[in-house]
Every structure is written in C-alpha cells, then in structure tokens.
Amino acid sequence: MLKINDLHASVEDKDILKGINLEVKPGEVHAIMGPNGSGKSTLASVIAGKEDYEVQKGSISFNGEAIEELDAEERAHKGIFLSFQYPVEIPGVSVTNFIKTAINESRKAQGLEEMPAKDMLKLIREKADLLEIDRNFLSRSLNEGFSGGEKKRNEIFQMAMLDPKLAILDETDSGLDIDALRIVANGVNKLKSKDNSVIVITHYQRLLDYIVPDYVHVLYKGKIVKSGTKELAHELEAKGYDWIKQELV
C-alpha cells in the first residue's frame, strides 16, 4: 500500500530525513518510535504532503502510484489521513459541518454525488456511538475549547467518518489520561481491517498495549536504524534509546 524508498526531506533548508525506507502492506499496523528530533513528525507530514517540507530525493508510492508531486488535498482524496499532534481550532465551523464538507469534497474528487443528508446523519450517529462521543459535542466549533482528550477523540471520529486506506496517527497519545487513551485506541482498533493500514507515531510503549503493532521501527537522526516486532517497543521502554545509539557507533 505504502512504499517509501531512500526518502530525503528538509524543512527551512535543514535536512531532517536522510534515507527512509519503509513498506506498509494492507492490514498492517506499524509503530514508529525514536528520541525527540529524530524526524518522526516530519515523516508523517511528508507522507501526508504538508507543503512546508521539501522532498530532495527518493520516492513515495501509494497503491502503486507515485505521490511525491501531489498536494495534501489530493493525497487525502486518495485515502491518506493524518491525525495531528496539535489539532487546529476552527471557530464558527461545527464538527458536523466540517466532516460533511470533508466527506463530500472527497466524494466529488472521486466522481461521486454528495452523500444524501439522511445517510450522512445515520453515519455520523453510528460513528459517534462507536467512539463514545456525546451528540452535543458534534454541534461545537471544531476543537474550540476542547480538552486534549476531546481533540484527539475528534481526530479519530474524523478518521472513522472518512474511512481512509492509510491512517497516520502522530502522537495521538500525547496529553491523554488513561481513560481517553483507552477510548481513542479502542476506536482505532474497531476501524482496523484487512484493507486499511495504520502508522502509529509514539514516544511511549503504553499506547502499543492498546494498539498492538505488527512492526516497530526506531527512527534516529533521520533514518530507520532498527525494526522488529512489538517486543522491540517493550525493550525500548525498559532500556531507553542509548543501547541503540551505542550499536550505531
């Protein structure tokens, strides 16, 4: 589904990614871990097509199609979803209106008619119940005055509604208490299928107790320096990253 080959990328003339190779198949969950400043959020932003980042070398293909030249909106319409570490507040735009617009824009890009209002309402209710979201929440302005947990739950609600092929969760666990973490992780697990894939970017092994990865990759100084199964995450939790840095010396 996603194939990244020798990817080099920079932001504001600073080299961040220095040769990333990664392959994600349908149905897989990949966790990306690493020390602060290693390039984890940059990798997420580059896959999603955030315009501040410049790809200098390498390729990104999604379902067999090269996407490096596509803008973020086009990538989203093809089924790539990025859950932000710090979601933006949009006063005056309700959660419901935002998601209706997003879905219908995606349908338009795929040559489909707008979703009938009755079907949209049914889908919104179904996904809100799945994620234990209060209906009153849906009429509030997007992320305005939301707690950290509410913002993250809203991101997963958007993911549930948009039903992407590839979901990238950029530190979705940051700032969450254990109850909010459980609800968010349960939502992700309910949305997983053999046809979609998830990339989880996290500092902490605790999220991976709930969203169990097939593969764990360690990113360090812009490169994936070690890959393994979920046991690697347990090892990192117990020993930190110093032992990996020493292996690289």
Question: How would you characterize this protein structure?
Answer:
The protein has 249 residues and is α/β, with parallel strands linked by helices. It has one domain (26-52, 70-247): 3-Layer(aba) Sandwich (Rossmann fold), CATH 3.40.50. It has helices at residues 40-48, 72-77, 95-109, 117-130, 148-162, 178-191, 207-210, 230-239, 242-248, and strands at residues 2-11, 14-24, 29-33, 53-62, 65-66, 80-83, 90-94, 141-142, 166-170, 197-201, 215-220, 223-228. The strands form three sheets. A six-stranded mixed sheet has the order 6-9-10-3-11-12, sandwiched between helices. The model has no long low-confidence stretch (mean pLDDT 89). GO terms for molecular function: ATP binding; ATP hydrolysis activity. Pfam families: ABC_tran (PF00005). InterPro entries: AAA+_ATPase (IPR003593), ABC_transporter-like_ATP-bd (IPR003439), FeS-cluster_ATPase_SufC (IPR010230), P-loop_NTPase (IPR027417).
Looking at this protein, list some descriptive labels.
4-stranded antiparallel sheet, 12 strands, 9 helices, ATP-binding, Rossmann fold, 6-stranded mixed sheet, ATP binding, 249 residues, alpha/beta, nucleotide-binding
Please give the structural blueprint.
Elements: E1 2-11, E2 14-24, E3 29-33, H1 40-48, E4 53-62, E5 65-66, H2 72-77, E6 80-83, E7 90-94, H3 95-109, H4 117-130, E8 141-142, H5 148-162, E9 166-170, H6 178-191, E10 197-201, H7 207-210, E11 215-220, E12 223-228, H8 230-239, H9 242-248
Parallel strand pairs: 3-10, 3-11, 6-9, 9-10
Antiparallel strand pairs: 1-2, 1-4, 4-5, 7-8, 11-12
Helix pairs in contact: 3-5, 5-6
